[in-house]
Amino acid sequence: MRIVLLGGPGAGKGTQAQKLSEKFSLPHIATGDILRQAVKDGTEMGIKAKSYMDKGLLVPDEVVIGIIKDRFNQDDVKSGFVLDGFPRTVPQAESLDSITKEMNMPIDAVVNIKTSPDVVVERLSGRRTCKECQTVYHIVYSPPKVDGKCDRCGGELYQRDDDKEETIRKRLDVYEKQTFPLLEYYKNSGKLLEVCGDVSIDEVFESIVQALKK
Ligand code: AP5
C-alpha cells in the first residue's frame, strides 16, 4: 500500500503514520524527520534547512524533492510506504507523480486529516519527541510510561524548536497558503480521502483504516 498523509501542523500525521506503518508493515517516510536528522548531524543541507524550519517556513522544493528521490532509491519502498509531510506544494506533488510513475508505483490513497486551529496549538505545545527513534508523545494525550523517556527505545524526549507558539502560528499560515491548494490537486485525481482529526488518536486511526478499506 502506498499512502500519502496530508494535514496541517499538529494534525497528527506523524502519529498516524507510525500506527499505519506498524499495522501494514510499511516504511514511514517523514521529510520533517529526515530534515531534523540532517540538522542534528550538522550537514550542509541541515544547516541550510534549519534557517527555514526555525522560522516556520517551508524548505525549498528542490531540497525536499532531492531528499525524496534519494529515499525512493532504497529497496524498502518497493513494498509500499506511508509518506508524512511530503508533498507540501503543488511542484512537490508533481515531482512525486513523476517519481512514482517512473517506478511504476502509483499512490493508492491520499488521506487528509482535518483539524481545527484551536486544538493544534495545545497539541504542539505538549508534544515530546524521542531524540533517537522520533516516536511522538504528548504530555497529556499520549504520555510515555516513564517521564522524559521513550517507551520504545529508552531515548530522551525533547521539545521541537519550532513548537513555540509564534512559530506554530507561522506554520499554520504557511500551511493555508502553500499546502492547502494540494487538496484541490488530489481531489481532481480521485484519490483524496478525508477524516476528522479532532477526535482521539485511536478514533482517527480507525477512521483512516475504514476509509482505506473503501
Ligand atoms: P514536519 O515535521 O512535517 O511538521 P508539520 O507538518 O508542521 O507537522 P507536525 O510534525 O508538527 O505535526 P503532525 O501532523 O505530524 O502531528 P503529530 O503526529 O506530531 O515539518 C517541520 C518543518 O520541516 C516544516 O515547517 C518545514 O520547514 C520543513 N519541512 C518538512 N517537510 C517539508 C516539505 N515537504 N517541504 C518543505 N519543507 C518541509 O501530533 C502532534 C501532537 O499532537 C503530538 O504530541 C501527538 O501526540 C498529539 N496528537 C496527535 N493526534 C492527536 C489526537 N487525535 N488527539 C490528541 N493528541 C494528538
Summarize this structure briefly.
The protein is an alpha/beta fold and 214 residues long.
Radius of gyration equals 16 Å
Q: What is the distance, rounded to the nearest whole angstrom, between the alpha carbons of the first and last residues?
A: 13 Å
> Strands of the largest sheet, in order across it?
2-3-1-4-8
Relative helix content: 40-55%
> Describe the biggest sheet?
5 strands, parallel
Unreliable stretches: none
Q: Structural class from helices and strands?
A: alpha/beta
- Principal-axes geometry comes out as globular
Instruction: Tell me, rounded to a whole number, the average pLDDT.
Output: 95
Could you spell the SSE succession in H and E letters? Answer: EHEHHHEHEHEEEHHEH
Assess the beta-strand content as a share of residues. 5-15%
Number of strands: 8
Task: Describe this entry's structure for a reader.
With 214 residues, the chain is of the alpha/beta class. It has a domain at 2-26 and 79-116 and 176-213: Rossmann fold (3-Layer(aba) Sandwich). It contains 9 helices and 8 strands. It has helices at residues 13-24, 31-41, 44-53, 61-72, 90-102, 117-125, 165-179, 181-189, 201-213, and strands at 2-6, 28-30, 81-84, 109-114, 127-130, 136-138, 157-158, 192-196. The chain has a 5-stranded parallel sheet with strand order 2-3-1-4-8. It has a 3-stranded antiparallel sheet with strand order 6-5-7. A hairpin with a 5-residue loop joins strand 5 (127-130) and strand 6 (136-138). Helix 1 (13-24) packs across helix 9 (201-213), helix 2 (31-41) packs across helix 3 (44-53) and helix 4 (61-72) packs parallel to helix 5. The longest helix has 15 residues, at 165-179. The chain is globular. The two termini are 13 Å apart. It binds BIS(adenosine)-5'-pentaphosphate (AP5). BIS(adenosine)-5'-pentaphosphate binds at residues 7, 9-15, 31-32, 35, 52-53, 56-59, 64, 85-86, 88, 92, 123-124, 126-127, 136-138, 141-142, 162, 171, 197, 200-201, 204.
